[in-house]
Amino acid sequence: MPTPTIREIRRYPVKAMGGESLTEVELESRGLVGDRRYAVVDAEGKLATGKHSRRFRRRDEVFEFASRTTDDGVRVSGREGDWPAPGEELDAALSDAMGDPVRVLPETTTPYFDAAAVSLVGTASLTWCREHLGVDADRRRLRPNLVVQTDEPFVEETWAGVELGGVVLVVGERIERCRMIDIAQEGLPRDGRWLKQLTDAREMCLGVYLAVERPGLLAVGDEVRPR
Fold first, then answer.
1. What is the pLDDT of residues 145-196, one digit of tens each?
2. Reduced to 3 states, what is the DSSP secondary structure of residue 120?
3. In terms of domains, do 204 and 158 share one?
4. Which of residues 106, 131, 161 is at a domain's end?
5. Separation in Å, CA 163 to CA 13, 144, 167, 222, 227
6. What is the C-alpha separation between 107 and 223, in angstroms, rounded?
7. Nearest residue to 170 (alpha-carbon basis) of 222, 214, 124
8. Is the preceding peptide bond at 86 cis, omega within 30 degrees of 0?
9. Are 25 and 48 a contacting pair, CB within 8 Å?
10. Would you give the DSSP letter of residue 108?
């Protein structure tokens, strides 16, 4: 079997907003440097996402914005504007969009990740979903950090871990998806079929979470050696 390789690296400077595609990135014990460093937070301390929970509040408007990293720091675009993050002008634009006072705040003691530091999905798994579930299977809906070129659907779920150059990641669990994959985001239209089809076929799971065992530099094209 051909050796899997990193096809794409994706980072999301502000949680739940659109992200950016990278050619390389430093990986620290926390995850990709700069990934989910900020989040949109309301007066009760809940984070804006596409779902409700003890930590999160459903605010689909957040998906209308995109975040990226520049030489001058993080910037956010959306609703006919572009602002540095964090900042009062950005907070005002987001509060207006959501109809509720919110702020963009940096992570402190509680991580902004949903679960583990890094998420990964294989291209063969996406192709299987497209062919068997009749969905667009666009990786942007899943918000992965790593898209790996694979030839066997769901092979990533069988790995105990992976080595990528000097980096070592340990696979933790499959990722259980939620309604966020159906939401219009990053230029993609709303698609109400994704979650139902994935629930029926694969118990809502697609992709895997990983923890960082050995940090280092990741680059597109790096070989992925399963453990």
1. 999 999 999 999 999 999 998 899 999 999 999 999 999 999 899 988 999 9
2. strand
3. yes
4. 106
5. 25, 18, 6, 10, 7
6. 31
7. 214
8. yes
9. no
10. -
